[in-house]
Amino acid sequence: MARPALILLTVCLAAAAMPLTFTGPAVALPAIGRALGGSPIALNWVTNAFMLTFGSSLMAAGALADAYGRKRVFLIGVGAFAILSMALSAAPDILWFDLGRAAQGVAAAAAFSGGMAALAQEFDGPARIRAFSIVGTSFGVGLAFGPVASGLMIDAFGWRSIFGLVVALAVLSFLLGTRFLKESRDPNAAGLDGRGALSFTAALALFTYGVLLAPERGWTDPGVASLLTGAMVMFVAFGAIERRVPRPMLDLTLFRYPRFVGVQLLAAAPAYAFVVLLILLPVRFIGIEGLSEIVAGRLMIALSAPLLILPIAAGLLTRWFAPATICGVGLLVSALGLFWLSRMPIGGDVLRLIAPMALIGIGIALPWGLMDGLAVSVVPRERAGMATGIFSTTRVAGEGVALAVVSAVLSALTAGHLAGTGAPANTSQAAQRLVTGNLASAAEALPRIGGTVLVRAYDDAFAMLLLMLCAVTIVTAIVVFVFLGYEAEAATERPDEADEPLCPS
Predict the structure, then answer these.
(1) C-alpha closest to that of 504 among 248, 121, 184
(2) Helices then strands (H, E): number in the chain?
(3) 497 CB neighbour count, 10 Å cutoff
(4) Mind giving me the DSSP string for 466-495?
(5) How far apart are CA 493 and CA 422, in angstroms?
(6) pTM for the complete prediction?
(7) For the residues of 186-249, what is the DSSP string, one character each?
């Protein structure tokens, strides 16, 4: 096998391992809660801790990869990722598990940023687009088979076994990377923007924690208000720092270009149109509807299986259609699937869920294969680490924030529907337990309310949430289409400038 193909395989193996680390724990969340205990907030951190540190570390990891070597950062990241995955399988309680998930997210950020930046150096032009499409497909493989593989392993060996496949893929990727990746770096890199990295991470952490606390304490609680205010201050500080640093990890001047803004919006779109469902639906299927982990995993294939094929097909479609058209149509298809799924009540034939879930997956898979290639096309080649860092940060940090916000909204909607039934004042506690899939614990919090009423309140809230996600996805589709199309028109009108980079080198 040719060396470029082996380099691509190396990155693809790491890319396939990462989605297993959030689809697996999502399927196992009810079992993890029974085994390790923990409050609803602690159980929410099982997923949010990984997404938060992953998303907030990507830009810093991209800068480190450019400055100190893409191969070095990749190998450190994927090696630590494998070790931490093994440690998680032996976590004694929920606190250590959540801390391990946070550390695992940092390692994943290093592996992802280093690997994608190394890939951008190895391939150029159309070959780069195809390579990134294949990586997107590999990510889709992890998403498609993660839930069912996790369900089978939980059923056969218990929830701790879900990290076995992750470790195997990471170790194989490490061995191949050691042998075939070649070292590269940006000669003009100035090292890590420490103040920027710290302020950005603090802003995300404060915001996520505040949103997670809000359903329990209320949005007007002084603690919640302080966390959200602190997040706003940190975001403002981050912007001020990045304007003064000679080589910022986030080049704010890029936001002058409509295409760059469109790419970032496109990066965030799967968070609320697709990724949140990877977490919420298994919890609904297992914790609320009472399905087994295996059945829930099989149902989830309908949502993620399109990512096995369509990202590559989308790359081929660019021969006849503009990326703006493909991405905009894809998001509209996903919005249609969200609307259709909102019409499917809990307790019906679960097979009826397959079609709307597949439609959501098809819609997201179309832009999925184009996003990474579009991201690296807006900066000079030597800043590939920064480009992938910004794009991946927007995507993954968006996923973490979206999950926290969507969980809080679902909890608030559920509590509101429970209050409408005449339930006592502690509906927020029961609602939070329902959102984490613990129907029995929710019934204990509201002993006078029957299980049927609890499920109906959750069902109504879930349907309303899907309609809200549908509306947001439609708006995003329109904006992405306009912004990406605007740049295409500009390039057509100015053919002599079409090949110039969109940011200074």
Answers:
(1) 248
(2) 18, 0
(3) 9
(4) HHHHHHHHHHHHHHHHHHHHHHHHHHHH-G
(5) 63
(6) 0.73
(7) -TT-----HHHHHHHHHHHHHHHHHHHHHHHH-TT-HHHHHHHHHHHHHHHHHHHHHHH-SS-S
pLDDT of residue 153: 84
DSSP string computed for 388-427? HHHHHHHHHHHHHHHHHHHHHHHHHHHHHHHHTTT--STH
Q: Is 321 helix (H, G, I), strand (E, B) or coil?
A: coil
Percentage of the chain lying above the pLDDT 90 cut? 15
For residues 403 and 148, give the distance between their C-alpha atoms in angstroms, rounded to a whole number. Answer: 21
For residue 452 the two structure tokens come to: 């049927």
The mean predicted confidence, pLDDT, of the chain is: 79
Closest Cα to residue 10, out of 162, 106, 131, 143? Answer: 131
Helix axes 3-36, 94-122, angle to 10 degrees: 170
Rounded-to-5 percentages of helix, strand, coil across the chain = 85, 0, 15
Given a cut of 90, is residue 92 above it in pLDDT?
Answer: no
Closest by CA to 216, choosing from 408, 18, 12, is: 408
Q: Tell me if 366 sits within 8 A of 385, measured CB to CB.
A: no
Cβ burial, residue 492 (10 Å; 0-12/13-18/19+):
exposed
C-alpha to C-alpha distances, 481 to 201, 265, 329, 476, nearest whole angstrom = 30, 10, 9, 8
Q: For the chain, what is the radius of gyration of the CA atoms?
A: 22
What count of other Cβ atoms lies within 10 Å of the Cβ of residue 472? 17
Q: How many CB atoms lie under 10 A from the CB of residue 396?
A: 29
As a whole number of angstroms, the distance between CA 486 and CA 477 comes to: 14
503: left (phi over 0), alpha (psi -120 to 50) or beta: beta
For residue 194, give every residue at least 6 positions away whose Cβ sits within 8 Å of its Cβ, in sequence order, or none.
Answer: none
- For residues 55-64, average pLDDT: 77
Q: Which of 328, 359, 332 is nearest to 344 (CA)?
A: 359
Range with the poorest average pLDDT among 141-150, 281-290, 339-348, 407-416: 141-150
